[in-house]
Amino acid sequence: MDTLCLFALAGSRDLGRRIAARLGIEPACHEERRFEDGEHKLRPLQSVRGRPVVVLSSLHSDPGLNVNDKIMRLALFCGALHDASAREITLLLPYLAYARKDRRTKPRDPVSLRYLAAMLEAVGADRVATLEVHNPAAFQNAFRIVTEHLPAAALLVPHVAEPLRQAARIVVVSPDTGGYKRAQDFRQRLERNLGREIDSAFVEKLRSGGELQHGRLVGDVKGATVLIVDDLIVTGRTLIHAARTCKQAGAVQVTAVAAHGLFDASANAILADAALDRIVVSDSVPLWRLENPAVAARLETVDSSPFLAEVVRRIHAGESLNDWLGG
Q1: What is the C-alpha end-to-end distance of the chain, expressed in Å?
Q2: Which InterPro entries does the UniProt entry name for this protein (predicted)?
């Protein structure tokens, strides 16, 4: 690790320090400035010539910077590193903004993920690694450089598994048909961790005029501990709809598991619903919008720094990520 430079940009510095500590290195020094007119300036404060570089930036809005400011800063800094002759630039993006806008759903819609990919490629990025995107295939196809999709199940299953060892029956549920493959991956990893068979189910989510309508549960959850698995939580409406459906079908306990807790302001009221007993998310997004104590009491945040540090170590050492992540 003696040649590796790990830069943690604004909004990700605490996570960067934890990752660096696990790697046995210090975070590399850099400058970030915002001018009065809103323009940004970033530059490394140490030589990166001929060295591999990792830039950590979770692309979400926070009280200090909105998501678009963060993207611009990332692009400017990546360009500065490239011009300073960094050997290889890896962008470690725990949360990737615009990943949900990966296709056209209406005429003349933008394919925002593809445009973001083109921007990062243009400024010299060599690799992008991110935690659990909405559509892994779309993420991989959007970029022409190396992509590393890091399944959140590899991070979250060990945390979720321990309290379940005494559960009589466990069912992993997808809150909609689109997330069924993600839920199946989670279920299979959980089966290997617990050494027992786990059932699956999904909720048919029906919309009318953009509004979520009642859906039906496909599968049996009666008497079971249920895990509802999704990629991210914003308002929580989809999760609460699925949780209510499972409780009405006889589930004894319902836990929501998601990689990213974006939690907009409306989630404070929506997630207070008694149908949901427990919420588990990673620390990819700080929980600054979540203010309801009733929701916070059910919430568990999983530290991603050991996981991401091992990702960085393996990339730097030229070791396989697939062999380690499994699937």
Answers
A1: 28
A2: Pribosyltran_N, PRTase-like, PRTase_dom, Rib-P_diPkinase
What does the pLDDT read at residue 207? 62
User: In CATH terms, are 5-150 and 153-302 the same topology?
Assistant: yes
**Identity of the amino acid at 42:** L
The CA distance from 92 to 168, in Å, is 39
Q: What is the pLDDT of residue 177?
A: 87
DSSP letter, residue 235? S
Length, in residues, of the chain: 327
Q: What is the CATH code for 5-150? A: 3.40.50.2020
pLDDT tens for 171-221 read 999 999 889 999 999 999 999 999 999 999 999 876 665 566 657 899 999
Tell me the C-alpha distance between 207 and 97, whole Å.
Answer: 25
Each residue's pLDDT tens digit, 103-135: 888 899 999 999 999 999 999 999 999 999 999
Residues belonging to the active site: 205
Q: How much is the pTM? A: 0.94
Structure-token match 């892994």, residue found: 136
CATH 3.40.50.300 describes domain 153-302: no
Strand partners of residue 173: 201, 228
Residue type (1 letter), 12: S
**Domain edges within the chain:** 5-150, 153-302
CB atoms within 10 A of CB 158: 14
Placement of tokens 């934890």 in the chain: 18
